[in-house]
Design brief:
Elements lengths: L3 H25 L10 H7 L3 E9 L15 H11 L12 E3 L5 E3 L2 E13 L5 E4 L1 H4 L4 E5 L5 E10 L4 E5 L9 E2 L10 E6 L7 E12 L7 E4 L11 E4 L3 E10 L9 E5 H14 L5 E2 L2 E5 L2 H7 L7 E6 L4 H5 L6 E5 L2 E2 L5 H8 L5 E8 L2 E8 L1 E2 L26 E5 L2 H7 L5 E6 L13 E5 L2 E2 L3 H9 L7 E7 L2 E7 L9
Parallel strand pairs: 9-14
Antiparallel strand pairs: 1-4, 1-6, 2-14, 3-4, 4-5, 5-8, 6-7, 7-8, 10-11, 10-13, 11-12, 12-15, 13-14, 14-15, 16-23, 17-18, 18-19, 19-20, 19-21, 21-22, 24-25, 25-26, 26-27, 26-28, 28-29
């Protein structure tokens, strides 16, 4: 029997399978028509984006000339901003930097320093938003429009906490931007930045939103993008595909001083709230309750019996503050503020800051396995205050004995208890064996084991003998001015030394 018919059959089957695959591959291949077109967006928004040039009178002392080939003011600004002055001697490079600006020595006059940045027009009568670090300490601010008109701007107000500033130029019938709702921003959507990197005005870069609510340790959660942002872009708008401003380009993450694929923008909703107050008051009025907070980890959450990781841990409470008067204690976990969930360490400062001083608010806290509501009166924001705490000297070496956790402890003196406003607690004098692997430190003061307050060394030793070696327990520890929970798992065998 001939095998040719079989070959022809197999060939026909292969062709039948491949033809649909060709169509599928062709349909999935991106074409030029499927890529975003930014031209209309730039035509629409571009005229409302401005260049900012600042001049500051500086002391001659400490200023040095940039290396040969870097005399250009924009490049000098770049290296001053990211590497510091004096340029030749400064070696350290910051990991996270502003996306531009600052002040650097003018080659023609060592008593003048200049900076460059960006901004955008909010109103047709000349209100302009930018970053606070663009205009900070500037003696003169110049705004240049896309039609090359230049104006001397008046500084209306600066808020360093959010890095937002508002300036005003004397002009009318100006082009303006449209403001979006930054809460509607979606991760993965296309966005565009327009600004003046290195003084190159009206430069357009594009990318996508990489993440939302990115906590960088600042007052606000940022919008993270992969849009190219460099020195001079600071203060410029981050724009969605509808031509609306969703944020202010403010920072970059960098190990070199230049763009490395990660940039951050201030959400426009937060920036507008600040700008509105700057316009009316020239400053931002914020609420405060007087607590220091830290993150709640999964280990601490499990040890305390929380159903999931949530809230923020109160590490310290300012004496006679609204929180202190309301009964908030170190070790409390704040779950909600006025019914709104507190999920990150930036949520609570923002929620309290947005609340008008004099208003009564409700804090929902977790304490010793139970939720509790506390009423707190919001005060006006003041400079931070810290408590200085003295710790007693560790006991002499020959007197130390180590307990089951590998800790040598001692009682607090009456003077210490009074100074720190404590009713009890024990101090760690030394650590040995498993104690050195717990995260505890010499000088720490243990205030609570789980939900039980620690009174003295005798009670503490009794409590730890009852611990289950198969379960972690949370120790409430005071370290310096701050209080935190440290999860500890007791060893199966007693410590011997």
């Amino acid at each position: 029997m001939s095998i040719y018919p079989v070959r022809r059959f197999l060939l026909a089957v292969a062709v039948t399978i491949c033809i649909p695959l060709v169509y599928l591959c062709a349909a999935g291949t991106p074409s030029a028509s499927n890529l975003p077109d930014f031209t209309n967006l730039v035509d629409k928004v571009g005229p409302a984006v401005i260049n900012i040039h600042t001049v500051t009178h500086a002391q001659k002392q400490g200023l040095t000339s940039p290396p040969l080939g870097l005399e250009d003011s924009d490049m000098s600004e770049f290296f001053r901003r990211f590497f510091g002055i004096p340029l030749p001697q400064q070696q350290e490079k910051p990991d996270s930097s502003h996306g531009g600006d600052g002040k650097s020595a003018d080659p023609s006059d060592s008593e003048q320093s200049s900076g460059v940045g960006s901004g955008f027009i909010l109103s047709s009568n000349g209100y302009v938003m930018t970053n606070a670090h663009v205009v900070h300490d500037a003696d003169t601010i110049y705004v240049t429009l896309t039609d090359k008109r230049e104006f001397k701007a008046k500084l209306i107000g600066v808020d360093e906490r959010t890095d937002v500033a508002l300036v005003k130029i004397n002009a009318e019938n100006l082009p303006t931007v449209m403001i979006s709702d930054s809460n509607k921003v979606r991760v993965g959507e296309w966005v565009v930045a327009i600004g003046s990197p290195f003084g190159l005005e009206n430069t357009v870069t594009a990318g996508i939103v990489s993440a939302k609510g990115r906590d960088t340790g600042d007052y606000l959660p940022f919008i993270q993008t992969d849009v190219a942002v460099n020195p001079g872009n600071s203060g410029g708008p981050l724009i969605n595909m509808r031509g609306e401003v969703i944020g202010i380009n403010s920072q970059i993450y960098s190990r070199t001083g230049g763009y490395m694929g990660i940039s951050f923008a201030i959400p426009i909703d937060e920036a507008m709230r600040v700008a509105d107050q700057l316009k009316v008051n020239g400053r931002v009025i914020r609420g405060r309750i007087g607590v220091a907070i830290i993150e709640v980890t999964k280990e601490v959450s499990d040890a305390l019996g929380l159903a999931k990781v949530k809230g923020v841990l109160v590490s310290s409470v300012e004496r006679n503050s609204p929180a202190d008067n309301a009964g908030v204690q170190p070790g409390d976990i704040i779950l909600k503020f006025n019914g709104r969930n507190v999920d990150t360490t930036t949520d609570l400062p923002r929620m309290v800051g947005e609340t008008k001083p004099g208003i009564r608010a409700t804090l929902t806290i977790w304490r010793k396995g139970k939720t509790k509501n506390l009423l707190v009166f919001i005060a006006e924001m003041q400079p931070d205050m810290t408590m200085k705490v003295k710790t007693s000297r560790p006991a002499p070496a020959h007197e130390r004995t180590f307990n089951q956790l590998g800790l040598a402890i001692s009682n607090l003196s009456p003077e210490q208890l009074k100074l720190m406003h404590l009713k009890g607690g024990v101090q760690i004098d030394e650590l040995y064996g498993p104690g050195t692997r717990t995260g505890l430190q010499r000088g720490d003061i243990i205030l609570r084991i789980g939900d039980t307050d620690v009174l003295d060394t005798k009670q503490f030793e009794l409590l730890i003998r009852q611990l289950d070696s198969k379960k972690s327990i949370a120790l409430l520890v005071r370290r310096g001015d701050n209080t935190q929970f440290i999860p500890v798992r007791p060893p199966a065998e007693p410590v011997q030394k």
